[in-house]
Amino acid sequence: PIRHTQSPTTHNLAYDKNGDDVIQLAFEVDNDTLEDTVKGFRAMKVRGWNVSMPNKTVIGKYLDKLTPAAEMCGAVNTVVNDNGVLTGTITDGVGYMKGLKDAGIDAIGKKMTIAGAGGAATAIEIQAALDGVAELSIFNRKDKFWANAEETVEKINKKLLTKVDYRHIIVLESTRR
Description:
The protein is α/β, with parallel strands linked by helices. 39% of the residues lie in helices and 18% in strands.
């Protein structure tokens, strides 16, 4: 439940430290009230907001546009309001790629291997391809995310220049905790 999130505390501390004149609040919003919430935030000229499940995969239809990564992922975790134009994006991949760059790792034009095919992994895989990673190998167990890996591979291979494949990874019982 959103009432358990630590995001407002964490973000508000960062805003204070940076001298930003903004505040983050948490609201319990379900799919039934999502459209009205988006309309209300637009009317109040809220500059932006984060989106959590189960709304990430639904909110796109109430926004004006989506970034390429959000469109390919089929999910939005952040909305930016630029003078009434609501743009949905997904920040997991952007954050990961920036983290690599900040650590001195340049993956552009190279091969990247990722273990996982859940929501955050999908956003990272798509952003890596959008940014220009030459090859991408996705490893995942044949679990509930396996079909998602297949779909991600198909989207990237169809729309982008990155060569991508996926493989089954076997996790031995003795290695699980």
